[in-house]
């Protein structure tokens, strides 16, 4: 009997982590990734930083056997976290002390992909449609062909095509947008800004907006301009769609409803980032501006044999440092379910595999979705603190200090 055929749609952190974990257990699979295979130059560019947490992302790295290789890749952004008011004055400086190391998204992808057999990754495959058939799940990649699988894992992000097999629930607009701009070689070219943003993360809060900086590869600072704007078509309405980042400078800094009331040091950071943006994500050089979407907390689906979801495809939420961690934990837990079913089916074929997998898959989904509800509530609480008032920096600092004090009390009581 042929071995069960497993597809992972999406080659982000969740899909690649699952691939590494299955490969370590000699379970064959195929990853289908939308992007073309990145070059070494592509992977060397700034790509945003991800802090991995004990109990989730770091546990997945350990299970992948990659802890020793992971460590040396985490030096580009420290765990320093500066919180400032909209004048740019630092109200609190915290340090993770090695508990939540930062790694660039590109370095994480490179690390994971290096431990997946290259013949198991199909780059440049855009999924057009996923459809259940009597013989499994049919994946239609247009001119790249159609393929049938016994198990399909949707790791294909916010707008997952695989999700449509399980539920018609779709992401909804949150009333927030993010503009991303990047300055490279910051210390040499703009030492005053390097001093301002520090060696890790710098977060300015006010008027229900945020200016967030993270250090990264090429001595960069990636600046996230997180704007609370109810207009879902904000980029088009304000004439920014398809324009270079420099076009956003006056729109943002001259409007008191946006960043006009922020302090001169913060405005200098934003203006410089807009003028110097290296457009690391947009190949046409246009401004990277995106609305934020989320899935309703508590979203679920009726279990179906041969299909499941992980990461943003399953539980998309606003950025809170947990997205990649929960996605990698999903992959870790799913790999255990698949491995638990695979030995009884390796010689006897796909039907026995699915029969053995179904109860394990249902347990995995139940635990994952319950965890997502908890993380979603915590995300809402944190976002509420960061964006809830005109001068939310003070509320956020008070909450952070309370958390630090509670953690200290807990450690003293051990």
UniProtKB/TrEMBL annotation:
Transmembrane as UniProt keyword: no
Pfam name, any one: FAD_binding_3
Domain FAD-binding residue range list: 6-230
InterPro entries xref list: FAD-bd, FAD/NAD-bd_sf
Keyword tags: FAD, Flavoprotein, Monooxygenase, Oxidoreductase
Keyword Magnesium: no
Full protein name: FAD-binding domain-containing protein
UniProt organism field: Sporothrix stenoceras
């Amino acid at each position: 009997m042929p071995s069960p055929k497993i597809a992972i749609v999406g080659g982000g952190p969740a899909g690649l982590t699952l691939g590494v974990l299955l490969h370590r257990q000699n379970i064959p699979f195929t990853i289908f990734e939308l992007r073309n295979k990145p070059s070494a130059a592509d992977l060397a560019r700034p790509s945003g930083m991800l802090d991995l947490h004990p109990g989730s992302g770091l546990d997945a790295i350990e299970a992948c056997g990659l802890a020793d290789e992971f460590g040396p890749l985490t030096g580009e952004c420290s765990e320093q976290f500066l919180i400032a008011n909209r004048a740019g004055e630092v109200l609190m400086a915290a340090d993770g002390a090695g508990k939540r190391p930062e790694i660039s998204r590109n370095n994480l992808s490179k690390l994971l992909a290096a431990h997946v057999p290259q013949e198991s990754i199909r780059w440049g495959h855009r999924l057009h449609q996923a459809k259940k058939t009597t013989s499994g799940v049919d994946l239609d990649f247009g001119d790249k062909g159609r393929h049938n699988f016994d198990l399909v894992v949707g790791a294909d992000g916010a707008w997952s095509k695989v999700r449509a097999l399980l539920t018609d629930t779709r992401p909804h607009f949150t009333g927030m947008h993010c503009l991303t701009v990047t300055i490279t070689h910051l210390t040499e070219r703009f030492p005053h800004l390097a001093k301002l943003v520090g060696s890790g993360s710098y977060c300015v809060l006010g008027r229900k907006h945020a200016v967030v900086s993270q250090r990264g590869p090429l001595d960069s600072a990636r600046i996230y301009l997180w704007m609370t704007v109810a207009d879902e078509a904000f980029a088009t309405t304000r004439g920014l769609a398809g324009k270079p980042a420099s076009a956003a400078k006056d729109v943002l800094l001259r409007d008191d409803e946006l960043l006009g009331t922020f302090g001169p040091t913060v405005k200098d950071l934003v203006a410089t980032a807009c003028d110097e943006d290296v457009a690391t994500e947009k190949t046409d050089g246009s401004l990277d501006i995106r609305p934020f979407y989320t899935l309703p907390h508590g979203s679920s689906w009726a279990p179906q044999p041969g299909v499941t979801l992980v990461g943003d495809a399953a539980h998309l939420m606003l950025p809170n440092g947990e997205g990649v961690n929960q996605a990698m934990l999903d992959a870790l837990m799913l790999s255990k379910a698949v491995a638990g079913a695979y030995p009884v089916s390796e010689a006897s074929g796909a039907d026995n595999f699915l029969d053995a997998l179904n109860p394990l898959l249902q347990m995995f989904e139940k635990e994952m979705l319950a965890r997502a509800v908890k993380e979603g509530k915590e995300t809402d609480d944190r976002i509420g603190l960061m964006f809830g008032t005109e001068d939310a920096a003070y509320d956020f600092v008070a909450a952070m200090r309370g958390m630090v004090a509670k953690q200290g009390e807990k450690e003293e009581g051990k």
